Amino acid sequence: MSQNQKHGADQPDIGGPTPKSQRTKIVKSSDDNEKKTLGKKLKDSEICVPIVYGNIAFWLGKKASEYESHKWTVYVRSSTNEDLGVVIKRAVFQLHSSFNNPTRVVEGPPFELSESGWGEFEIVITLHFHSDITEKPLHLYHHLKLYPEEESGPMSMKKPVVVESYDEIVFSEPSEGFLARVQNHPAVIMPRLPSGFLLPPVPMEDIDSGNRGDTKNNPLNQWFTNFSEADELLKLAAARQQLKM
Fold first, then answer.
1. Vertex 209, ends 217 and 130: CA angle to 5°?
2. Which terminus of the chain, N or C, has fewer Cβ atoms within 10 Å?
3. CA 44 – CA 225 distance, rounded (Å)
4. CA 178, CA 41: separation in Å to the nearest integer?
């Protein structure tokens, strides 16, 4: 990719979004034939998958040029850095049109993409799920952040700019096949099953592949935000309190 090609929006947008916490319920597929092939649904139950999406950007310092000032990575990860491949089949990152091949497809975990450039812009991340989930793709919107806020001080090669958002993907009335496949997986919060309800055994290949795509040893791990459930509950409670005032 040529260095004199502009990577990003026509003008760099120094502003960025405020990190947010939310809970996203997935819209179900309307394909009835597909539903019939995937087993019974567990009524009044939900599977929750906590995720984090965002970017980390490193300033190139003296090596920076007019059109290539930063190296950055955008990603979707488990909030506890476990393997999301048990739920997500592929991720599609839609970059700014100034990039060569702006639609980037990542077919397996870890779901991340690295590039270089100078401009900030919105990245659309589309998550496609495995067939036994029977859910429509989920679209996430992330504003690529390269430049630090003024109060954070000048740019530094040692300290990257990190912007992350926490979300919880909620799958309502999951199929028994989906439940059986993800039971005991550390990236998934399972529902309380009815008394006497038994799931079929987990296939051995799923057990063996449980940690292949985790991000615990990712070289960027040291910069990841530590999102704990307690912290998120406090933030949500504070936000509700502000709305009441």
1. 105
2. C
3. 32
4. 9
d(CA 103, CA 176): 34
Rounded to whole angstroms, how far apart are CA atoms 121 and 95?
Answer: 8
Six-digit token string for 191: 């529902």
CA distance 138 to 22: 14
pTM: 0.74
Q: Which residues of 122-158 are buried (b: 16+ CB within 10 A; e: fewer)?
A: ebebebbbbebbbbeebebebbbbbbbeeeeeebeee
Residue-level pLDDT, tens digit, the chain, 245 residues: 333 344 444 333 333 333 455 667 665 555 554 444 456 787 878 899 999 999 999 999 999 998 999 999 999 999 989 999 999 999 999 999 999 999 999 999 999 999 999 999 999 999 999 998 867 999 999 999 999 887 566 787 888 999 999 999 999 988 888 888 888 899 998 877 666 566 666 665 554 454 566 777 776 766 677 776 556 555 656 665 666 55
- Please, which residues bridge with residue 56 across strands? 73, 162
Q: What is the Cα–Cα distance from 74 to 114, expressed in whole angstroms?
A: 7
Instruction: Output the CA–CA distances (angstroms, integers) from residue 94 to 24, 75, 91, 105, 232, in the order listed.
Output: 20, 12, 10, 9, 28
